Structure formats: C-alpha cells, structure tokens
Amino acid sequence: MKDKLFAFPKESSTSYVELLSDLLGPFGEAAVCLRFRSNLTRGYSLFSLSTRDGHNTFLLYYYPGTRNQIQLWVDHTYQDYKLHGNDFTQWTSICASWSSSIWAVWIDGTPYKEDGVPNVKISGVPVIIIGQKQTSHGGGFKASESFVGEITDINMWDKALTDENMMDYFAANEMSGNVINWNALNYNLIGEVKKRPYVDPYPCVPL
Prior knowledge:
Layout: E1 4-8, E2 16-20, E3 30-37, E4 44-51, E5 54-63, E6 69-74, E7 77-82, E8 92-98, E9 102-107, E10 110-115, E11 127-130, E12 149-157, H1 163-170, E13 186-190, E14 194-197
Antiparallel strand pairs: 1-12, 1-14, 2-11, 2-13, 3-8, 3-12, 4-5, 4-11, 5-6, 6-7, 8-9, 9-10
C-alpha cells in the first residue's frame, strides 16, 4: 500500500475497510498512527478496534466544532484531548499511544498527554475497522458516525511509542507497525471505498 490511500466518498453505514493482522494480542499497551483529511463537520471515527469483550476496545474518534476534541478509548475507558485550531481539511498526521503510565495523542508533532489509567488492557481477538465506528463486535455501524475523506499510512504497534518514535513518524521516516503494517497491509475492502494513489504534499527533498 505504499503511496496509496483509501478514499471514502460519501456517508454510509455499509462502506469500510477491515484491517487484518496475525498478531492478535492480548496487548498491555499499544499505539496507532495514520494520516487523513476530511471536510466533515460532524463527529467521525478514525480507528475502531473491538473484541468480543466490548466494542470500544481501542477507538480514536473526533468531535469537531466548538467541542474540537479527540477522544481516545481503551478497554471502555476514555480520555478527551481538547485541540487547538486544527484544520483537518488538509492532510493531518495523528498518533495515539497508550500504556499504563501515559496516554498520548500527537497531531502534526504537537503532543497532548494525560496520566495513564490502571487495569486497562486489550484482550480477545480484535476486529479492526477503518471508516466506521463499531457498536458491536465487527458491526453496528451508523452512517452518522462514518468517515468521509481519505486515509493513508495506517500503522499499529503492540507497544507505546516514545516521543522520539512519534517525531520519526511525523518526519516520514518509514516507521512500520508490527500489528498493522501499511507497507505490507492485509485488508478487506467493503462497499464503495476506493484505493487510489497518494501524493505526499510535503515530500522530503534531499539536500
């Protein structure tokens, strides 16, 4: 999937991408990074992982407008991150990292951090969905929570990322996840999602 993206052309409860992994947990910490852009003015899901234990097992959800915050869920527990004037109509890089000591969301290199929450884990076989928010294991989609726009460079790790790891990702240093690896992606495309070329708007130019 290098130099490709997933395009979600319209609001839907039937279009999504299922990401597949051989590494099924359980996880005591994790991190997800991706790049996206969207013109939506309502809330939408960026990354949804569920297990049979519950649908908000690892969820990254954005609330726009005056609320303007990212909500990170892990094992039915969540933290809110109030943002500062972000324009998601332009390509944006976002990472979410979770461990017992700290939960962090990074947006285009800007960190938002909260203290960790004890007794949180991901257990059970995960279903990972892009484009929809799961309200049941692998389903329960609502058009009003769907993603419309473009997503690329999705990676997931079974560990938290350090600040240095985050900056490597934002600098496009080819970081690849060991749970989800964008450059060797296994996935199922469902509905009207399209795979298209991705052109980096900020290419690195050698000196």
